[in-house]
From TrEMBL, chains A, B:
One of its GO terms (cellular component) is plasma membrane. This is Annexin. Keywords: Annexin, Calcium, Calcium/phospholipid-binding, Metal-binding, Repeat. Ca(2+) binds at F24, G26, G28, E68, I256, R258, G260, D300, T301, E306. One of its GO terms (biological process) is response to water deprivation. It comes from the Eukaryota. GO terms for molecular function: calcium ion binding; calcium-dependent phospholipid binding; phosphatidylserine binding. It comes from Zostera marina (Eelgrass). PROSITE patterns: ANNEXIN_1, ANNEXIN_2. Belongs to the annexin family. PANTHER family: ANNEXIN (PTHR10502), ANNEXIN D1 (PTHR10502:SF104). A pair of annexin repeats may form one binding site for calcium and phospholipid.
Length: 318, 318
């Protein structure tokens, strides 16, 4: 359930490009016009607009946007306009280049909430853009237990069919997870193996067996030490695999509630989910915070950035 | 340069199926007819024959072949008839199921001599056939240093473009490899990282820098302990990445020269390379052994198995 709204009658790509070019011309930039066009076109339409713009004006639309816009608004428009696989490749590269353990979420959520074929497209887009493969960068830039978790997570091509989770296996692996977590052996080979190689449906069965067998959720058991970033990465792996909607609601909640909004996370979740499941995430946000995500965004952001996010959130007045 | 020969005028798939069905009927099986057809059809043609056979006779051609044939001949025909990605998936599964460190070659050669897109097709074929993913089986069945090498090797999606190997990087990583190999730190993280994540062209530049800088080939430096199977796996990784033709010649040479032919390896190399580069491997074999691969095969095998291999080797009289 996406939040993206596309008008029933969409102008031709050439008309959109002409309007965008107009928005860049003369005194000042017409930010509203940019939002009106780009925030209401789907990925295929945006790709055609970029291609047409390049043919008509001889340079990349993203370069023009970069010259005209600035700050969080610029980033939200640029990140949104990119093709989804290319966008994820950019997010992955940026996260690895500026690697800090507290930024594990970007890599975990891309690895765990995209389909296996989407992950392959992201790896292809990464090669096209950066002339190297994700795993060679990851293996150089990320060390220790984080590498041990993230490398197999990002390179996985997991079994996705929903038929027939193996219940005996789920039970035995729930037991292994419980034993290792109880022993605080968080980066144990078996924990990593289970979380990074089993398919999503199999893992959900394992998490259910964990709850049934041990009377507590695995996610809860991974909350025992809030300062342990690796534990947080494991928890993100489990939560984003178990229920992406709940995971993304939590990322948004933390981005908005902390002192000084985390615009990076806010932009990332809104732009990457607007065409996927942002409607469900909004419902989850409302349930959890008793305030709508739009209202929360209005309180925490302003100007063109606010308008861009609200447009992607499908807010009625934008 | 393939050795497979396909007649200039190929019968229709229905005619081929009719002939195959005839070969199975009456007293005894007409093995020659089976070879005449299947060993002279390319992968696409064999796929269409299987599909047509199933439509015409209501069961899988492979099942019929399995009932009629036996021993090494059976295996060579079945393995050959499979679609290449599916065939590799079968070889991978079989190797992991009956895992012995001395069988590392099958996994290493599939990971290092297939293109990254072929590797993805193999991973898809594995899921379709076995309802799970390669990495979850590999991570369960293979332990220790072999897992450390083979898991990233099989799951890699390496950068393949030939333009611009990074020479400074090649030099520095040749130095790392030399240091670690000198220290006998064969399963060191850095050795594994370099060999499993760098693209083939980059690695070849690294191997050249190794030779230039240290006066000996990396492959030679990995021959110091013939009894160390992990060292042999590293050597196979380097050799099959550096030069698949040389690697496959060596596998064939060892398969033929040892006491009692290694039919498993012989069948595997002939069937998996007949449509790819077996002509080059044959030339390499002739150079290295002063006898043609066909003559060597004739000396070491017999009957229908011999005829099947010779047909795939493009032998004139078959």
């Amino acid at each position: 359930m996406a939040t993206l709204t596309v008008p029933s009658c969409v102008p031709s790509p050439a008309e959109d490009c002409e309007q965008l070019n107009k928005a860049f011309s003369g005194w000042g930039t017409n930010e509203k016009l940019i939002i009106d066009i780009l925030a209401h076109r789907n990925a295929t339409q945006r790709n055609v607009i970029r291609k047409t713009y390049s043919e008509l004006y001889g340079h990349d639309l993203l370069v023009s946007l970069g010259k005209e816009l600035s700050s969080d608004f610029e980033r939200s428009v640029l990140i949104w306009t990119l093709d989804p696989s290319d966008r994820d490749a950019v997010l992955v590269e940026e996260t690895m280049r500026k690697w800090k353990p507290c930024n594990h979420g970007v890599l975990v959520e891309i690895a765990c909430t995209r389909s296996c074929d989407e992950l392959i497209s992201i790896r292809k887009a990464y090669q096209t853009r950066f002339k190297k493969c994700i795993e060679e960068d990851l293996a150089v830039k990320i060390k220790g237990e984080f590498k041990k978790l993230l490398l197999p997570l990002v390179t996985a091509y997991r079994y996705e069919a929903s038929e027939g989770a193996n219940m005996a296996l789920a039970k035995s692996e729930a037991k292994i997870l419980h034993q290792k977590i109880s022993d605080k052996a968080y980066d144990d080979d078996e924990v990593i193996r289970i979380l990074t190689t089993r398919g999503k449906y199999q893992l959900r069965a394992t998490f259910n067996h964990y709850t049934d067998g041990f009377g507590t959720e695995l996610v809860k058991d991974l909350e025992c030490d809030p300062k342990n970033e690796f534990l947080a990465a494991l928890r993100a792996t489990v939560l984003s695999t178990k229920c992406p909607t709940t995971y993304f609601e939590e990322v948004l909640r933390h981005a908005i509630k902390r002192t000084g909004t985390d615009e990076g996370a806010l932009t990332r979740v809104v732009t990457t989910r607007a065409e996927v499941d942002l409607e469900l995430i909004k419902q989850e946000y409302m349930k959890r915070n008793s305030v709508s995500l739009e209202i929360a965004v209005m309180k925490d952001t302003r100007g063109d950035y606010e308008n861009m996010l609200l447009a992607l959130l499908g807010h009625k007045d934008t």
